[in-house]
């Protein structure tokens, strides 16, 4: 292989490596962002599940009070 041709091939490979490194950087940043979003959504879900459980307990308590009033009129 001639020297100019070899130099062109090396330059082409260097450019390809640069593009791959940039793609790797972008994907790493996107991955970090997605993991952060996933963590936030998991925390939000846990909070919503806790609030749902609290509401369910309150509704059950109200039902029990209504039943006791039904069985023991004033």
From the spread of the alpha carbons, the general shape counts as: rod-shaped
- Helix fraction? over 70%
| Unreliably modeled segments | none
| Radius of gyration, CA atoms, in whole angstroms | 32 Å
**SSE ordering:** H
Distance between the ends: 104 Å
- Average pLDDT reading: 95
Summing up helix and strand content along with how strands pair, one would put the structural category as mainly alpha
What summary fits the major beta sheet? none
How many discrete structural domains?
A: 1
**In DSSP terms, counting alpha (H) and pi (I) runs of 4 or more, how many helices?**
1
Task: Find the count of extended strands (DSSP E, 2+ residues).
Answer: 0
User: What's the assembly state of these chains?
Assistant: single chain
Strand content: under 5%
